[in-house]
Amino acid sequence: MLQLSYKPYLLQLKRVFTIARGSRSSAPLMLTRIAFGGQEGFGEASMPALYGESFESAAAFLSRVDLSQFSSPFETDTILQYVNNIAPGNQAVKASIDIALHDLVGKLLNMPLHQYFGLPAQVMDTSMTIGIDTPEEMAQRAREHAGFRYLKIKLGAANDRDMINAIRAVTNAPLFIDANQGWKDREEALDMIGWLKEKGAVFIEQPMLKENKKDLAWLRLHSPLPVIGDEGIQRLTDLREAPELYHGINIKLMKSTGLREGFKMAVTAKALGLQVMLGCMSETSCAISAAAQLCALADWVDLDGNLDAQNDPYTGAFVNNGQLHTTGKPGLGLGNINWDDIVPCSTNSAN
């Protein structure tokens, strides 16, 4: 019989993280565990406010999940379909169950999950993200992350060019640009993209509001750099219109409901001629280790969400000289975990 446990956890960040749509110094998580046959699988939900999930919504959803009705974790598709049908939305908390279930299955099979999905282990360069700040502070962070091949820069503020110029004064590293829907006018966005290409940008992530499909389609046709869908591409069904709006997609397990659907999204995107990026929220090494299992399907990787965490309760996939490595251990590849040692937070603690 499968047994589900969960607890709220507040991930503290090393510094305030700012994007075009807000700032935060911590991230509310819901940690999950599924036990079966003497093994445990671990997962998590990272729930930034802009996606509408919270400690309260996650707890309410999980209280409705009854995994004891299933006799085996290898009924994976049946279990995840049942979880998906409990209620619409709730992608992150659904991902927490998916990740824990796959971790459990990998451990029971004694194989890392990339092998379970038929993929080779893949070492990839991950970008390191620099949030919106003063140009001077962003330049300092670029100096601190000189060991990374790529830097991911959050834009969408009034002084975007000043920030890029400050960073360019200290590094020539290629830049992943994420506007987080912060640009409003398509002509100005196109002008900015042309300028960013001259400054060494690799692609532009979600330049305009996801609802502004007419201007996104126009920008896709005219942009000198690939336009990548993030907020506009969450689940597999969103890929139907993706080729008309974007050159590629950013797959995040917290949006896709986990590894199962994230894998399907990557394979489908490739079949549609779309480029694939693997991204993350502010997460622990648990969710980062999960996403890292799919690196062989990615063109670009931005899996740095655990690197700015002060209180990561897990160890797993790691970065060495800017490159992301999986551990090769079964399941997610996490280190030894005592679930009872992870202290839950008050659900009133999130900022």
Automatic annotation (TrEMBL):
PANTHER family: D-GALACTONATE DEHYDRATASE-RELATED, ENOLASE SUPERFAMILY MEMBER DDB_G0284701
Enzyme Commission number, as recorded: 5.1.1.-
Name the record gives this protein: Dipeptide epimerase
Gene3D superfamilies reported for this sequence: Enolase-like C-terminal domain, Enolase-like, N-terminal domain
Phylogenetic lineage: Bacteria, Pseudomonadati, Bacteroidota, Chitinophagia, Chitinophagales
Cofactor(s) named in the record: Mg(2+)
SUPFAM superfamilies: Enolase C-terminal domain-like (SSF51604), Enolase N-terminal domain-like (SSF54826)
Bound cofactor: record note: Binds 1 Mg(2+) ion per subunit.
EC primary class: isomerase
Transmembrane segments: none
UniProt keyword annotations, A-Z: Isomerase, Magnesium, Metal-binding
Pfam families found in the cross-reference section: MR_MLE_C, MR_MLE_N
Ranges for domain Mandelate racemase/muconate lactonizing enzyme C-terminal: 135-226
Family: Belongs to the mandelate racemase/muconate lactonizing enzyme family.
Domain of life: Bacteria
